[in-house]
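hey m, so remember when u said the tokens were messed up on ur end? i reran from scratch. heres the input so u can diff it against urs
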Amino acid sequence: MKIRRSAAVLAATAVIGATCAAGALAAESPSPSPSKELPTGLFGSADPTYDGVWRQSVALLAQHTVGVQPAPEAVGWLVGQQCESGAFAPYRANAGAKCDAKTLVDTNSTAAAVQALEALGGHGAAADKAVAWLKSVQNKDGGWGYAAGGASDTNSTSVVIGALVAAGEQPQDVLSEGGESPYQALGTLAVPCDEDGGGAFAFQPDKKGKLAANADATAAGVLGSLGKGFVTKSGKTAAGDPVCADGGDKFTPEDGARGGSAYLASAVAKDGCLKSALAGAEDQPDHGNTADAVVALAAAGRTTEAGKSLAWLEKNSSDWAAQSGPAAYAQLIFAAHATGTDPRDFGGVDLVKQLGATGPKGWNATVTETAVPSKEQDEDGGVSVWWIIGVGLVGGMGVGFLISSRNKKQPKP
């Protein structure tokens, strides 16, 4: 669930390394400078071309999760980004202009917006239109790619599952023209048990159809398998059941959650963090993916491993979050929420205050006595990912459920 999404992001194959240097910062790609003055309601000051709707959605959802009333202009900006079709583009500088064939809408921005709008309440019509669009672009295999019609990937399919659940849908009943459900699509992306990384999820098959374990995709896949969105609480795993099951007709969402969470638990067991999969940064810790892993591990009931990684984040994520911006603070808030940790005292940092400082200026945010719950929160206290997800706009374009920072996945200028 991350800071990702971009019209041309990378699909990184996650390589889990051995040691994470505490306090080391993952290399960040410089953000292109905004060419025009940014909207006053937008979170963050970096160029929103590739992640505007994504970072706005997770920022608003994070504020709602901790009981903070978002600025009306911030909510209004997000709603105003929607196209008539119901889809959202990452950013439309002129929201008053009609979307056309050149407007690059995507499933990730749309699904993130649905999760935020459903949680905030009062925007049912906009959320319903967005869900209808997502259903209209479902692939025959039951999943979704970043761009409509692109090959299905784990991250996109999972963030859409989170949107469906937030909107009160039953993902297993959302069938494609081929009669396949989103869970069946995830099953085809689970690494076979007898292969390296068995039980994890791949982002997509490679050109030869082989599946390679990807930590980012696995965190997203666990949440998708559990029917969760970006915000969730600790769950349970069935004791004694196998942690890995090969895909196919017998593959179940429970298999995906067990296998994927077991892979993540093993990956963070030594140092508490995941490593970056970005070229040139393989020896650096990946703060964003680690935060996503915490949410996934907690949701699957692996609280010990989730707690270890959360402790690592409390010690080492402050500089990363300050550099990365609102989506990073949102990721950390989701991780704190999933583990029952106070986000206002996260390693000595008030994440809620820091997130608010990246939003509309002059807005006196207030803590609501009772935050308006989303449909899933009514049931179990959360809705929760994410992710843009690595792929290029070309041929099947996905992080967050789960970029280590959406900024990381932006194409270089």
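this time it looks ok to me. The longest strand covers residues 274-275. if urs says something different then somethings off w ur setup not the seq
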